[in-house]
């Protein structure tokens, strides 16, 4: 097994050149797609230059290691990478072999999610905006929702027990690293928790009682969204004020990520 060549570059990150695909340090980078289902021992996989650079600067997640090629390394800003985080440098062919498919972006990293604040601390101020997701199982939608939450300055994202993990590799990629900028928390009883936090809850539905443009959200409010098709459960709808976005042309709803962009713009201005 190759021990790899070790050297130190900018930001004091530890660059380690590896030529052996069997090197144990690369174990969790192997079979990238399958690991989304099998797990990475409590870690997540980030992919792409912009995503990695957001990870390096995140206050919610820490970088465990980076994998890239000599060519891609030159374009990666690692100035925010903590000292002595290993950056494994491999040939493009070796990177593709490890991942199990061509990694055209040439950038991977392993990270650990470790938000410094609790949900209560995130919404402790006089004003708070929270996005609540129920039954969101599609990773593309989850990524789009997390991206919009970051773009509009949401204080926290709350997930019910049936929503997928925002830290799936594809969800992270679609969020363009937004998942590293907005804290998320999984709770057992969504409506009870919102009541405890004294947040006024608004549920989005094609059958909502009020149009979005009629709503003047209070300083502390939460927007609830469900999966496309089934929408939010009936018990959640009855516990919230229901809101709709009027459609034309025979359509009754938008993609959930698109809807969130419109609603969060209205709520977070």
Question: Which keywords apply here?
Answer:
single chain, 269 residues, alpha/beta, 60s Ribosomal Protein L30, Chain: A, Alpha/beta knot, 2 domains, seven-stranded parallel β-sheet, six-stranded mixed β-sheet, 10 helices, 13 strands, 28% helix, 23% strand
Q: Overview of this structure, please?
A:
- The protein folds into 2 domains: 5-113, 2-Layer Sandwich (60s Ribosomal Protein L30, Chain: A), CATH 3.30.1330; 119-268, Alpha/beta knot (3-Layer(aba) Sandwich), CATH 3.40.1280.
- The protein has helices spanning 32-38, 49-57, 70-73, 92-99, 119-122, 139-151, 169-174, 190-196, 234-238, 256-268; strands spanning 5-8, 14-17, 44-47, 61-68, 86-89, 107-113, 128-134, 156-159, 184-186, 200-204, 210-211, 220-226, 241-244.
- The termini are far apart.
- The strands form 2 sheets. Strands 9-8-7-12-10-13-11 form a 7-stranded parallel β-sheet, with helices on both faces. A 6-stranded mixed β-sheet has the order 1-2-5-4-6-3.
- The protein is an alpha/beta fold and 269 residues long.
- Strand 8, helix 7 and strand 9 (184-186) form a beta-alpha-beta unit.
- The protein has 10 helices and 13 strands.
- Residues 7-11 have low confidence and may be disordered.
């Amino acid at each position: 097994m190759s021990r790899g060549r070790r050297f130190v570059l900018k930001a004091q990150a530890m660059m380690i050149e590896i030529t052996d695909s069997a090197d144990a340090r690369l174990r969790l980078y192997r079979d990238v797609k399958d690991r989304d289902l099998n797990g990475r021992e409590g870690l997540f996989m980030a992919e792409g230059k912009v995503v990695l650079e957001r990870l390096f600067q995140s206050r919610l997640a820490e970088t465990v290691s980076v994998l890239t090629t000599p060519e891609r390394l030159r374009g990666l800003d690692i100035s925010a990478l903590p000292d002595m985080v290993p950056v494994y440098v491999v040939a493009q062919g070796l990177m593709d072999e490890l991942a199990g498919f061509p990694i055209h972006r040439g950038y991977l990293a392993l990270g650990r999610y470790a938000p410094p604040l609790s949900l209560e601390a995130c919404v402790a101020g006089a004003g708070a905006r929270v996005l609540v997701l129920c039954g969101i199982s599609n990773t593309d939608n989850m990524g789009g929702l997390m991206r919009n939450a970051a773009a509009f300055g949401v204080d926290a994202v709350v997930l019910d027990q049936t929503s997928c993990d925002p830290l799936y590799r594809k969800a992270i990629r679609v969020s363009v690293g937004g998942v590293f900028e907005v804290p998320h928390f999984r709770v057992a009883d969504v409506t009870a928790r919102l009541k405890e936090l004294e947040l006024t809850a608004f549920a989005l539905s094609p059958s909502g009682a009020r149009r979005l443009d009629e709503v003047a959200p209070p300083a502390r409010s939460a927007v609830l969204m469900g999966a496309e098709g089934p929408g939010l459960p009936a018990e959640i709808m009855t516990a919230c004020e229901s809101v709709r976005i009027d459609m034309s042309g025979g359509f009754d709803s938008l993609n959930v990520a698109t809807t969130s962009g419109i609603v969060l713009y209205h709520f977070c201005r």
